[in-house]
Records
---
Amino acid sequence: MTETLFSDRTVADRTLACEGATLEYSDAGRTTFALRDVSVTLPPGKFYGIMGPSGSGKSSLLYVMSGLKEPTGGSARFGGFVYNRNTETAVTDLRRTRFGFVFQQPFLLPYLTALENIVVAAPLPDKAAQEKAMRLLAHLGMDGLENKQPSQLSGGEKQRVSVVRAMMSDPDVIFADEPTASLDRKNGFRVIEALAGWRDRGGTVVVVTHDGDMLAGADTIIHLRDGELTDEGDK
Amino acid sequence: MRNPLSPLTYFSRNPGKVLPMGFVIVLCVFLIASIATMVNSIDLTILTIYGYTRSFTYAIPQRVSLRIPEEQVKIMKADPRVDRVFEGSVFFTNIKTVMGRFPFVVLGVTPDNRDYLLKRVDTGLIAGRMPAEGMPEAALSEPIAQNKKVKIGDIIAGPTDAGGISGSPVAVRCVGILRGPVWFAVTSKSFCDQTFITSPRCLIYTTKNPDDLFGVNNTMLPPVNKKNGKLDGTKLNLLSYQNLVHELRDSLSSMFLIMGVVNGTVIFVISLMSGMLANIYFTQRISEFAVLSAIGYRRSQLIGRIVAETALLTTIGWLVGALVTVTFLTIFKTAVFEPRGLIIDPQDLYAYKWTIPIPFAITAFAVTTISIRLMKLDPVSIIERR
């Protein structure tokens, strides 16, 4: 499991970028900026951390970069694919084929086994997908858990299953929004370690967290405050 | 491995969420099919009881005449399609139906004509004997005997019979049991003639080809009166199968209209209930759909999933409902109807036709309301809420 993926794709094809991205909400006549004129470029194959205090807009930036939220100003793109110049279906297809997601809660389907929860993210739920899911589970040290229901797994195990689910489509980018927030530190580090492994295989990892310790292995950390970029740089 | 998102996977692992909705559908199908079958049993009962009119027609003189006028008989006999025309006498015996007691005709005919008619209705004697000439005796079909709870030797009509045109001044006994596809009862003409002196004689006719009977009836006695070489409707009544069906459907039309309104209301209410139930279950699964949307399932795929689940559930519910109804009505028929000689068809397709809108209405209502919610679904708001 140490082979490098994505060697057939160019850097430009796989670069994430926001250009003047703004995300504003109107609430009872009052405008709130979740993001304000954020421009950032994330070349592929690196582990990016997004940090900032609560309400600084770090999750909003992740959602804008992943196409889950459309910016109210500016744009976001992946390679040459500019989200707001495409249909919602095209952006959804991009998420399915090129991105993987890990959220604060694992969001596993409660009536499916761990293996089935992972296969859900495969392009086709066939035998090959099943075998791949088994390999990924084994790689993350979770052999024997494949037939367990989410209710039979610990919090850390559930989150690692969701990490495997994010890896199922061999995504160019894995977006993780506070993936360790609900876990103890030991399990948190195991999840981060699993995500960092994806960077080692050539993928891009973008992790939002408020816990700086979790980003010890990150290549670049982006700092946000009040929706504005305060710092971006290699560690 | 079965597709983890297939409806069957969801159904088999979430019985607590699927069964209540399935039960509502089963109940709805059962309710409507049972009501429709019961109502249809009225129609079926009358058409079965008078089913012999498919094989021959009998005409009764109108007003105070005791006999069909001779010129009318001549017209019938002159028709090349007609096989046999003969006079008969009748009396009536009461039978039980879902609408109460009905008079059933006991045909008094000569032995020759009796044998001829029995052959026409494909009926034969299975117990006892045929009624003797001039004697107060009759032979009855099995279902009539069951209906009246009589056996050979029992009285089927007498001076104490209550109601309408049924009864006889002398006790008439059952001497034979008949078996055939229609209900049929015969006695001797001579007995009728000497006992029911003031009762009108009827004219019975058959056609060479049984299929021509309806045509002959139509030609001879259309709804408007005909003269000038045709039968005169002012002088006779025709008990024909077409007239029977026409009058029956006419008299039942109001009942079918009421049934339609009741069924429509039930379907609407059940669809509303099921749709609300489906929406409640959808609300419980909203995070499931949110995460699927976030990881790249299109809205159309999510809606397709809801359509597949709902359509499959309503179809299974309909099939189970139909099966439960057939089973229940078959037991009901065996335990209640048949012992009383009453008629009901548990597999009456016409009744099940009323239930076909149920799965469509429920699916349409549930899918429409859920689809509207799915179209507005913002996965981030659901994911961030947790």
---
Amino acid sequence: MEAIIQQFFNIEIMIKALPLVLKGLGVTLLICAVVIPLGALGGLFAAIASVSKNRAVRWTAIGFVDLFRAIPPLVLLIFIYAGLPFAGIQISPFVAVAVGFFLNNSAYFAEVFRAGILSVPKGQTEAARSTGMTQGQTLFWVTLPQAVRNVLPDLLSNVVEVVKLTSLASVVSLGEMLHAAGLVRSLTYNASPLVLAAGLYLVLLWPLIRLISRFERKIDT
Amino acid sequence: MQMDMFLDQFLNQAVLVKYTPLILKGAGVTVLLSVLIVLTGLTLGAGLACLRAYRIKAFSFAIVIFADVLRALPPLVLILLAFFGLPNIGVVLSSFTVLFLVLSLVLAAFAEEIVWAGITATPKGQWEAARSTGLTFTQALCYVVLPQAVRMVIPPLTNRAIAITKMTALGMVIGVPDILGQATTAQSFSANASPLTLAAIAYVVIFLPLVIASRWLEQRFTQKGS
Amino acid sequence: MASTYNEKGTPSSATLSVRALHKSFGVLPVLKGIDLHVQRSEMVFVLGPSGSGKSTMLRCCNLLEEPDSGAILIEGDKLTGPGVDLNKMRQRIGMVFQSFNLYPHLSALGNVTLALRRVLKMPREQAESEAIAALTKVGLSNRAGHFPSQLSGGQQQRVAIARALALKPTVMLFDEPTSALDPELVGDVLDVMRDVKEQGMTMLVVSHEMKFARDAADRVVFMDGGVIVEQGPPEQIFGAPTQERTRTFLSRFHG
């Protein structure tokens, strides 16, 4: 028991680690602020393309989505970060993370939006078109608002996944929260900084997870 | 010229030939880990969801805490904690075991929530019909409610299982010789990006059919309606 | 078959006895002291406006609802109280639901055999031949392999009746068995119920099928506001009801 407290919940070490870990938290949030809006937007476009009447557009979009759902995000990240320099392209860890997660996230957001669009009854489109709205107007004013409402829990849970995903940035030495905590751990040979980071992830994400659970209880499958 | 350089760096024939056996070995590790994680995670998750159905306060509370914490924490944090933290208190696990345990528990947490949602969405009349013929609570759960609940949630369960088995790539960080682990080693030895290309292809070959299958499953389920 | 109806009922010999049954949902009393005795092979019909407590009364009879007080007895054996194996008792009480509640993941045969195998612990072959016999009684032995989604509403309800019948219950409860059905499918279900009665089953039925009640019931019970307002042979209840509330209720159906 003593050893567990000493090795995992060492307050002294946590206090020492705190400034660095908090700085890392800032980077974590910065990645999220870039990747979530971009991924959602990319996903939305891919989703709209994936329900297009044009066969080529539809299959290209579905192919893109499935490809990036099949490749683990870490593989993508390392491919971009460690691979591109071989092609003479030098990029910073932050850009590598942003690009890699954008591709991965767009695919996941696209799946959610697509399910949402398909969940809106056909009669809605027909009603909107019968009042003289264009296809674009119908999509924007009638279909999407309902689609988003129908998949709100899934969108939220995607956001949670993105925040968790940012921890992978530590592998390419981007100084986000886990990287900072891991650094202090390797200096102190003590796991408490990791526990501190875990605690901060919990503070950040637990409210969202409770919210999702509550949403899901209301919606009968 | 551009193209030549690209091929040389990303699809270098000599490098590909040399390292393909290594990547294949890694693929074996990835597949083995994935199968073990899916079997353990889904069984444990469904078991916990069933336990929660008995609505014993202390158990339910513990299960919800377990599920919430494991869904909120990035798996990489748990992997590092287990791999670097546990030896300090005398528990030394291999990197393979750490990866297996952490991802199985994470999948169990998600599976518990998903199956539990299925159990609560099963109409009350099904319980009543089962109990009215004399089935016990446990029998009604096992033979009537759980089969329906699982069927209802197969699409989200499949998606989650795929997402989590893909995370076996995280094993590279603690030195598991899976596809990515082998590829990064090979890349640094060969000073060439081709092993990474090979790794990406290996993942696509393993996971793309699963992703497509899950899409097909989802389509079939939504068409059938409730 | 002679009517076994008796004005007061004879509690000691009744197949199903409900005694001083009280039940409330929160502060809202739903059943305010129900006494009802159903004799062997008797079909008792319970009528009443919605919210009269008739369904709750029926669901109390196999403890799908827990009564606040009072007693339920099957052939003199108490359903409530310490030391009672409720699952054993429930085998003696068949229940047919308004929404059928067939198990969607099992075939018609699987629906019927489940309790035979898991509750009565019959070997598979015996359970299946018993199930086929029960499905034959409801005219659906040729649909044994069909899943609920492949059956019409009327067929589903008949499978549900077979599921209850196969356990050879002492008494069967019917909770509005035809109200979820399209009008043209009601007849088949009522025919099956008539057959079941003719084979001597004791039945307690909550339903709005007035014509069927008039033709087939041995006794009609009218409930309103959580009490039994009046009861008697169908000719009496439909022809010359003594209570004002009964008359008002029935006049709405005669138009």
---
Amino acid sequence: MLRYLLRRLFQSIFVLIGITLFVSFTIRLSGDPAVAMFQGASAPTAEQLATIRKQLGTDRPFLVQYGAFLAGLVHGDLGTSFRSGQAVSSAVASRFPATLALALTSLLLSLALAIPLGVIAARRRGSGSDLAIRVFSLLGLSFPNFWLGIMLILIFAVKLRWLPPSGYSGPDSLVLPALTLGLILASTTTRLVRSSLLDVLGEQYVTTARSKGIGEQRVLYRHALRTALIPIVTYIGLQFGALLGGVVIVEQVFAWPGLGSLALNAISFRDYPTLQGTITVLAIFIAAINLVVDLSYALLDPRIRYA
Amino acid sequence: MKRALTNPSFLLGAGIVLLVVAAAVFAPALAPHQPTAANLRARLAAPFQPAYLLGADAIGRDILSRIIFGARISLVVGVASVAIAAVIGTIIGLLAGYFGGVLDAVLMRLADIQLAFPFILLAITVIAVIGPGLWKLILVMAFAQWVQYARIVRGQVLSIRETDYVQAAASLGAGHARIVVRHILLNALTPVTVLATLGIANNILLEAGLTFLGLGVDPTIPSWGGMLADGRNYIERAWWVSTFPGLAITVTVLGFNLLGDWLRDTLDPRLQT
């Protein structure tokens, strides 16, 4: 177990170095941030530029800057915003809870829908409800999340006036964005719950359990579903990145003050330290979730013991 | 083929895709108005009237005409990005799977990184630097996605390489090039075709999303994502501005997904999910 944990941790660190190196390198390609800071103002003198470069530390070679970024990252320092002059880490910290709340609520909502629907579809395979559930999954795969968001605003905020159309003012405003992401994620997860459960229900130990006279409900929930959840947990780990990608777009639809809007605003102001810091934090978040997912297998399947 | 013509997924999927392709190809002949012509008298004109069948947007441009022309952008981005990614990915996957070694190791590490880095974040980073634009978007998608194709081809090669018929071809004196192209490539293309069809659907969605965020196609070109970004601002007064372009995206993506699902079930039952 410990060896597996260390290997898995090493792999995550490698992936994070790859991502941060890519992000830092790409952002450095954008040109001289010192020049960018003078945008719109009168043309800077060579001396002014040199002073700013020295202040920002961008006069040093790329690898030295990257090393400094990593060293800062370890201490929770993500640099200073070009625009506000404040620490990027405090901007990220103030936006992170909104993104986390939206991502986790959507995830829970999708599971609350996908597991029962998938179980129904698998138990009544070939029936009308199975077909309806399969159509739901296919539609969810084809719906643009931001359009679904706009349509939900149209129905529940503009026409029915039940919920606020956008912003961040209490639990009410979480409903529509979480529903947008949750419905779309649920559609694909349902498909997987169905097929995974169908696989497991064909296994010998399920037949054995049934032949011992164990009730169908108990076979389903205690024996089959637990095993069927393993590929689903993996899938959710893999989908978490996509979910956060969706969060970035949906935050924009609902004017949700999370990391996605922070990153998008940073682009329009060419505030590269903020952009770099936000993307890095999101990448770390995704890597951490995947690590937790991998380690949680042992809890679900007693056969896996990380030999 | 006869079975295909009675399969509802195939019929619906192929029908939708043909319709969208026809709209894109014959856009100038089909569109009732110029897609970029503003008409201030028709500002936010309601839909279902002869002059503006699907209504007009905030500066009086005909929504139906813009949807017809917008099909061009969605198809070009979807098909071109997938084609570039699939060709590059297939070549690298073949080489990595067949020869192994450093190339293979690098490919697998890249695949790890790619899995952990959502496309939207990558696109935001790169587009922040190179700026938005149709071809830039296509290249960013291809750059991010070739790894998927390389990975799946590599897996195929690893299993096909050990089959009896490849071993037989090698012992009969077939060279590397002949084995790779004739015996392995043709068999490895099945999953690539499936992945590519579903990939077109996915990239049409991604293009619309990035254009909606202002990171995709130039807003002066009629595109479905751009129309939705406009429509979001008028949601209180004019539901049609954002409803119809979204419907166009959903139906098109559904068409490619149906075709992809059908291909997967037909070509390779093992890949079923």
